């Protein structure tokens, strides 16, 4: 039975599961990652988003491998609702529809079960527009052949989404989901004014990735003395001085609601009609994410958060592959 993506309020992102460069992954974390997986599924958060490019260096594909292992070992509530959604990278050497089919089959082998939702990780329109058509055709082939239950896109803007929709509609194939970077710090005008209404019109579920801005909206990083190392730390040093009005507003709403800033930020995404897919490396982080469910910000609170965002001097850097 196909998944009803419209009924899923939140998913779980697994970019960090296997990524040493940004997230400091170590195989000793696997036991707690299994606990995160189990807790999410038992609570009804059953969509897990991954990618065939996830995992640094020799760990490439580790996220898919872990998800397959965790799904196989899990036997609790909602087991039959587990949805593994992987993103297939538009690598320069993937040029044909067959290469997309082969990529999905390789992901299924790593996972140890069929991929439920196959997504094109990014549009090639910014640098090789001619490459995009065959890869979309490959996604369609996967759906027609029954190898996946649904297909989706990632980092497509409204113009490219319309073209992709038209191409796939000619074969009677629906686009189930679209992922874009979406949060209180990255609601670029096109996403807010064009992309959300377009997705509603076309019946496409909009997925918000990086809804907590790599952890910046959790409220954990309030000054420059407690920043993470590496690239995240550099980015946070640049962003923090210009976003204090938003962080203050998040904290005020969180205190009033008896919630955390992260839960408010995630609930804001849900109220905007998107499905956020926050990551979690620990059971504590998973519990915090789950605390964003079961309640709703008021219209006044949403307005205050939107105003605070507008008064921020800086916003999250957009993905370079995001198209118009």
From TrEMBL:
InterPro entries: Aldo-Keto_reductase, Aldo/ket_reductase_CS, NAD(P)_OxRdtase_dom_sf, NADP_OxRdtase_dom
Molecular-function GO terms, alphabetical: oxidoreductase activity
Matches recorded under CDD domains: AKR_AtPLR-like
PROSITE patterns tied to this protein: ALDOKETO_REDUCTASE_2
Cellular component aspect of the GO annotation: cytoplasm
Residue span, NADP-dependent oxidoreductase domain: 9-307
Cross-referenced Pfam families: Aldo_ket_red
Keywords attached to this entry: Oxidoreductase
Origin: domain of life: Bacteria
Protein name as annotated: Aldo/keto reductase
Organism of origin: Vasconcelosia minhoensis LEGE 07310
């Amino acid at each position: 039975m196909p998944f009803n993506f419209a009924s899923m309020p939140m998913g779980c992102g697994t970019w960090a599961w296997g990524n040493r460069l940004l997230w400091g992954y170590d195989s000793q974390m696997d036991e707690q990652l299994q606990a995160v997986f189990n807790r999410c599924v038992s609570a009804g958060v059953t969509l897990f988003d991954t990618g065939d490019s996830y995992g640094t260096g020799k760990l490439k594909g580790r996220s898919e491998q872990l998800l397959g292992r965790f799904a196989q070992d899990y036997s609790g509530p909602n087991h039959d609702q587990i949805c593994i959604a992987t993103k297939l990278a538009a690598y320069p050497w993937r040029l044909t529809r067959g290469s997309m089919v082969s990529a999905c089959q390789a992901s299924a082998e790593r996972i140890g079960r069929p991929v439920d939702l196959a997504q094109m990780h990014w549009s090639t329109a910014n640098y090789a527009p001619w490459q995009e058509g065959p890869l979309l055709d490959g996604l369609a082939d996967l759906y027609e052949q029954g190898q996946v239950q649904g297909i989706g896109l990632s980092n497509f803007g409204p113009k490219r989404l319309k073209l992709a929709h038209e191409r796939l509609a000619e074969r009677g194939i629906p686009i189930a989901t679209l992922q874009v970077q979406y949060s209180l710090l990255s609601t670029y005008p096109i996403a807010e004014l064009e992309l959300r209404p377009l997705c509603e019109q076309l019946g496409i579920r909009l997925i918000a990735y990086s809804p907590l801005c790599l952890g910046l909206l959790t409220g954990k990083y309030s000054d420059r003395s407690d920043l993470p190392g590496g690239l995240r730390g550099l980015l946070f040093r640049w962003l923090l001085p210009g976003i204090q009005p938003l962080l203050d507003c998040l904290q005020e709403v969180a205190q009033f609601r008896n919630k955390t800033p992260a839960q408010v930020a995630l609930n804001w995404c849900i109220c905007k009609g998107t499905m956020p897919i926050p990551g979690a490396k620990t059971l504590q982080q998973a519990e915090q994410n789950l605390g964003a469910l079961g309640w709703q910000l008021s219209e006044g609170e949403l307005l205050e958060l939107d105003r605070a965002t507008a008064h921020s001097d800086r916003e999250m850097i957009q993905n370079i592959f995001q198209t118009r």
